[in-house]
Amino acid sequence: EPLVRCDDAARTYGRGSGAVVAVHGATCTVPPGARIAVVGPSGSGKSTLLHLMAGLDRPTAGRVSHPGLTTTGDGLARHIGMVFQGPSLLPPLTAVENVALPLRIDGVPEAEATARARAALDSLHLDSLAEKLPDELSAGQAQRVAVARVLARRPRLVLADEPTGQLDRETGRHVLAVLLAAAAELGAGVVISTHDPRVADELDTRWHMADGRLVRPGEKTEAEPEA
Ligand code: ADP
Ligand code: ADP
């Protein structure tokens, strides 16, 4: 069963003459273990598509479902991890406290949450940063801690919205490698949005977004009819 299925899912902001169609009817599936890059320029609708897939936003037409994630009776949020572009750590908490917090919210007892947070930091080679505050971390270190925070919950689907967009090239490569290795260990599916074709080269499948239209490999857009 796919982790996500979009059936002609659309998202329009506003209404009437000022309405913006951020995503036109998108139809796609994310199979278990898939590694998909959603590539397109700024404003093309990538972020909106990822939010729809995460269940953080609802389609204004069509349908988004999660057949492979809703079988266990747990809430959807339990199985989906989201990585954002910018700083997302809570400033007053240390790295290990940041990673442990979502586990605590999930109901994991404090000692176990801390142990799992430390294990996630160790597996990303961040153990030396565990007691640091976000202010004391570089942008790349902070983003790796944010990846650890997502992966510590053992999601079955990781959605990352321009996760390397604010990093220099080498740092971005490192964060991406860490994210992909950790997701592979969990067997999680990965969808990463990016405007950078080099990021997409690291993944298995490339989807394109242009002006809110999703084009998957082998499909033709309306703008490029079959010759
Ligand atoms: P991308 O992630 O590719 O940069 P977005 O999904 O953020 O694209 O945006 C797609 C389109 O929707 C853009 O035209 C953007 O301005 C518009 N948009 C996004 N979020 C909102 C919002 N909350 N209200 C109004 N328009 C929005
Ligand atoms: P420019 O070539 O314009 O200087 P950079 O080389 O700094 O741009 O890369 C821009 C973005 O692309 C950065 O966010 C970086 O993390 C990302 N990036 C570049 N190459 C790769 C790659 N091979 N794998 C992952 N991310 C990459």
TrEMBL record:
Signal peptide: none annotated. It comes from the Bacteria. The keyword Nucleotide-binding applies. Residues 210-223 have a biased composition (Basic and acidic residues). Residues 4-227 form the ABC transporter domain. Keywords: ATP-binding, Nucleotide-binding. This is ATP-binding cassette domain-containing protein. It comes from Actinacidiphila oryziradicis.
